[in-house]
Amino acid sequence: MAPPKDPRRRYPLYLNILVIFLLLMVAVAGAITWYNYRAGSERAVASSKRLMQDVVNQFTGELSQFMGKAYAFLLIAAEHPGVNLPPAREEHDLRGLFFKALEANPHFFSVYLGHDDGDFFQVMRLKNMPAQAREEIKAPPQAAYAMRAIERGADGARVQTWIFLDAKHQRLAGWSQSDPAYDPRKRPWFQRARTVGKVQGSGYYVFSSLQEPGMTLAYRFAPEPRGGVLGVDVSARSLSAFVAEHKPSPSGLTVVFDEDKRLVAYPDSHKAVRQVMIDGREKLRLATLDNLGDPLLKQLSSRFDPQRPNQILDFSVGDEQYSCGVVRIRDFHGRFAYVAQFTPMDELIGPIIASNLHSLLISLLIMLAAVPLALFVAQHISRPLSRVVAETRAMRELQLDPTPAIESRVREIHRLTQSVDAMKATLRTFSRYVPVDLVHQLVASGQEQGLGGEKRVLTLMFSDVASFTDMAEHMDPEALMQKTSHYFSGLCEEILANQGTIDKFIGDAVMAFWNAPLPDPEHAAHACRAALMCRARSRAMDGAWQAQGQPIMHTRLGLHTGEVIVGNVGTAHRMEYTALGAAVNLASRLEGLNKVYGTQILASQATLEAAGEGFVWRVVDQVEPKGTTEPILIHELVGLMGDDPELAPDRSLLDFCRRWDEAFALYQRRDWAAASEAFAALAGERPQDQAAQVMARRTADFLADPPPPDWDGSAVYQIK
Questions:
Q1: CB 407 within 8 A of CB 384
Q2: 228, 122 in Cβ contact below 8 A?
Q3: Which fold has domain 452-649?
Q4: What is the architecture of the domain spanning 238-348?
C-alpha cells in the first residue's frame, strides 16, 4: 500500500543536519561571545568589588593601626608612675616614653600631658612642619623635635619653656616666657575628656601647624593625686598615602570621606585642605566633596545614599564613563566613614570588548572551515537511516523477509536498526497466529509507592539560629542565602555522618531524626553525638565569620525521644517522607527553651535515658512546655567523655555540673535556703551562665515566698 502524498516539501536528513549544524555554530559563536562579554563584565565588576573590598579591608587595617596605636599609647601612658608629676622645664618622667611613641609611630605629630592645675608637658615632631609654623615657635632649622613645658614658679607665676632637639634628642636651643597665653585647661581636647578611663576623639580637622588633616585623641586619667588629660595628635598623611597607592586602575581614584562629606584621605593630602574665611579671618578646613572642584566628587556628593552600606554608581564626566563603588565603614568612635573608588569604564571592560571581537572572528573562521566536515558527517549519519526508512516501508507492505544487517557506529542508529530487525521478527512470528493489523507492541509497567506510615520510636532534633531575623534584615539577600546554605551544609554533614535523616529545612531551622527509615538501635546516642558535633561545627563557623567581621549564627538545638508516625504523607501526586506526632512538637519546644536558659543543647529525660553512658549532662529544670500536660525534666547536653577536645568537657566544667546537680537536688527537696545559696554561688562563679542566673533568682524568690505545698516543681512555658 502506497503512503499518502505529503503536501509539504521535505528535505534530506543530511541537508537538515548541515543547516542545523551551521545554525548551531552561529548560535554557539554568538552565545559564547555574548557569554564571554557578560561573564567578562561580571568578572570585571566582581574583580572590582573584590578589589574594593580588599582596599576597604586594608584601609580598615590601616585605620586600626592609625588609631589603635594612639589608643594603646594613651592607656600605657596613663599607667606610668610619673604621669602625676609636674614638668621641670627640660625634664619630665614621661619624656622618654613620649619620644619612643613619636619614633615608633611616624603618624604621631605630637604627644602631651595637661594637669587640672594648668601644668603642661608636650613633645612634638617638627618634620613636615611648614616654615612659618617653625618660625612662630623659633625652632632652629636643624631641629627635629620640640619640647614644651608650662609650670608654676616659686612665686606662683606660670612659665612656658620651649626646648629644641636634633634627631638624636640632643639639645640645640631653647627659650622661655612668663604668663603664656596657652592654657591646656581651656583647650577643646582637655575639656572634651571629662570621663575618666575613656578615650575621646575630636573627629577629623586640619592641624594649623602642619596644614594637614588629622585627629586628636585625649584620655583623662584618675584624679588622685593629680588629675589630668593625656593627648596625642595623629596626622592623616599615612591615610592619604594609602589611597594614593591603591588606585582601582591606572586612571582610577580612591578617596575616603566622613559623614559630613569632608575628605579624610585624598591622594594629594594638601588638596584635601582649603582656606576659608571665618569671621573675617582665613582659616584652614577640610575640603568637601562639593568644594574640592572635582566633578566626579561633586556627582558622588549628590547621588550617594549615606544610609546604604554598599552601593555601585555610574557617572559621566564629558565623554568619559565611570563606575564608582562606595563602601561604608565605622571608625573607632562609631562614626561612619565612606571609601569610594572611581574606575573609567574603558579601563574596566575595554579589554573584554576587544577580546570578544577577536573570539568572534576566530569562531567565524572555524565555522567556515568546518562546513565540509559537517557535510561529510551528515551524509555518514543519514545513510544508515535511509536504509532503515526503506526497511520500514517494506514492513508496511508486509515484506518481512530478512535483509543484510545495517551497520552504523552511531549508538542510537545501531539500536534503531536492531529494534527494526526485532520488530520484523516479531511481526513474522505473530503474523503466523493473528492478523497483521492486530500485532501490537507490549509495554511493561512498574509499581508506584503508596501513602502510609508506621509507629516507631525516633530521636528527633530541631535546630534554630539565634537572632536570625535581625541578621536577615541587615544582610543582602544573596549573601544571606550563601551564608545560610554554608551553615546548613556544615550542620547536615555532621547529622548525616552520625546516621541521621534530614527531614526538612524550615527557614533557618533544621529538622532531623534517627531510627528511620533504617532501624538504628543506638539512635539516641547518635543523635546526641550529632548535636555535639553540630555545636562544635557551628562554633568553628562562627569563629571564622567573626574574624571576617561578619555576623555569627549561634545555633540552638532541641532533642527528644518518643513514639511518632513515620512514613509517606501527602497526596497521590506529591508525597513527603516525614514524622508526625506530639514527640515532634516537644523536640521543637525544647529547642525554643534554650532562649530561656541560655543553653545550646536541651534534651528530654527520655533522650538522656536512651542515649546511654558516656555523655555529660546537666539537669536544667522541670518544665511543662506549651502543648504538654505532664511535667518533664530537661537536661543540657554538655559534652562527651573521651579524647576529642571539641566534645570533651574540662575538669572545671565537670565539677561545675556536679555541684549544679547537687544544688538542683536541694531545689527538688524544697530546701530553698540551701538551694538559693548553692545556685547563687554557681551564678557568681559563672556570670555568663544564664541558667544559673535563672535558678538563682527563682530560689531566692522561693526563699522569700515559698510556692504552695501542691506545687509539682514545674515551670510552665508558652514558648513555641
A1: yes
A2: no
A3: Alpha-Beta Plaits (3.30.70)
A4: 2-Layer Sandwich (3.30)
